[in-house]
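Friendly challenge for the regulars: who can give me the structure tokens for this chain first? No prize, just bragging rights.
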Amino acid sequence: MLAGRDRTDDVGADVEVQARALSDPELESLLRGEQPVLDLGAGCGGPAYIRHFTQLVRIRTSVDTAKIRVPEGHGFGGGLWMAFRRLMWRIMRFAHDDYAFRQNTVNTALGYGLEFESEERRREGAELRQRIDQLERLVRERGAGGA
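First reply, four minutes later:
Bragging rights claimed.
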């Protein structure tokens, strides 16, 4: 609703076109966490490895209890055991979700902390390289001027 009128037909189509244009399959796969961990060993070293590692840590921080499946029991005893396990899962679900939420909060904070620390070290290294270059230039200028 815009200005009291239903504009789904004209505005909705524009939004869909813009969403398709902005869609990025690589970004979508990163957000889903499908970045394979084995890519870490794919020949990247040094800063590229650290950048890739911190990205993976940040992406794979969540604990999800929604995907937990209770395996089926076999026979009459297995069916009773299965019913008991499902009942216990329903009872304990709140606690599981609470623990998962807390763990996700800690994991996310650690992931961002690791990323911040890595970026800070990269920035510090760049500043030190710049200072060393300045000092070397100064030594060369003084050496050339004194000769």
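The chain has a mean pLDDT of 78. Residues 75-146 form the longest helix (72 residues). Your move, everyone else.
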